[in-house]
Specification:
Oligomer: homodimer
Strand content of chain A: 5-15%
CATH class of one domain in chain A: Alpha Beta
Order of helices and strands of chain A: HHHEEHEHEHEHEH
CATH topology of one domain in chain A: Dna Topoisomerase Vi A Subunit, Chain: A, domain 2
Distance between the termini of chain A: 55 Å
Chain lengths: ~210, ~210
């Protein structure tokens, strides 16, 4: 496709490198910005320029922060004994949004994926094992993708964790039917797992934090 | 929602000002950029900084260009006698992509919309009427939205154009069933218009440019 100007082409190409944004949407976004004042567009550009400058990885849990140690790790009201392991910062933020979990986190930075060439060494696993050795952690919740790669990662981690501390409780987030769903639209694997991991109605007693 | 850092919040807010991008997508895009190198993000920022600097409105047709007069207006191979009036640059690019139209364009920069406070004076209409007075234009194709506002704009323009030159042919792009569609999924208004504006099969003779 021919673009009216080189500058427009550059912005369209920058947008279309983002996940889920095709050439058509990228063009629409660029033309939208063309209709905005240059001050507004410059503000956007400056926000981007500052993104990496003022954001670091938490030295403890690998979350994003503007300090060496993130607010969650510093929060003394949260339970240090329970650690939720997630793949990405987006997963952590999604769990935080529920307001339900009051423990601490560890962000792996991805999952083990031989196909994409990501092994345990590319992830923040050694730091996690260090924490297990040095902190008084009693439970590790694996809040990983319910995919083959997520399950491989959970399996690898649980073996490593148990070799350091066999008494630590390792749990997985529940797999099953999402809330508000009609069974007829659920895939077979989810449905069969939801039957396999069924819980008894009368004794149902969800874990509180 | 609480963001890990102020810089992340700023980028999320900049993204979520774009059309069709909600807070959730904005966060996903921002976290994606966090995983990219700062060079890549800076390139994106610089593309944005240059967007307004190197892009102007064509003095003739109001299209976007890096020169005073755009490439389409300068193209001597295109037919000067036929002018396609569109609302936005995106519409012009969509028509150009078909490769079917070989005339010139005029970009209004929007449509008459009393609800949004957009009257004829906010649009590039006086420039269009000037062109009609000064150039040898024989046909004006209104390629406007098939909405109430698009139709109001077409009605207003046709009155103005005819008061200057009653001999000019004014045409509207065809309204009807889009290609590849099943009739059962078409809304009633489109379907009734496609019946109203039906064409005789044997004498069907589409206009060539």
């Amino acid at each position: 496709m021919e673009f009216p100007t080189e500058s427009i082409k550059n912005v369209v190409e920058a947008f279309s490198k983002l996940p889920g944004i095709g050439k058509k949407t990228a063009l629409r976004l660029t033309l939208h910005l063309m209709q905005k004042s240059s001050i507004e567009v410059d503000n956007f550009a400056n926000a981007l320029l500052n993104l990496h400058k003022n954001t670091f990885r938490c030295k403890k849990c690998n979350h994003l922060s503007d300090q060496e140690i993130c607010n969650i790790c510093l929060d003394t009201k949260r339970d240090n004994k329970i650690l939720c392991v997630v793949e990405e910062v987006g997963d952590l933020l999604a769990i935080e949004k529920t307001g339900y979990f009051k423990g601490k986190y560890h962000v792996l930075g991805g999952k083990i994926s031989p196909l994409e060439g990501i092994g345990p060494n590319q992830l923040s696993i050694s730091k996690l094992l260090e924490r297990i050795q040095n902190e008084d952690i009693q439970e590790i919740i694996m809040a990983l993708s319910t995919t083959q790669e997520g399950e491989t990662t959970a399996f690898y981690l649980s073996k490593e964790i148990q070799s350091i501390n066999p008494d630590i409780v390792i749990s997985l987030i529940a797999k099953g039917i999402p809330s508000g769903a009609s069974l007829e639209f659920i895939d077979e694997l989810t449905l069969s797992k939801s039957l396999l991991y069924r819980s008894q109605y009368s004794t149902l007693n969800p874990q509180k934090f």
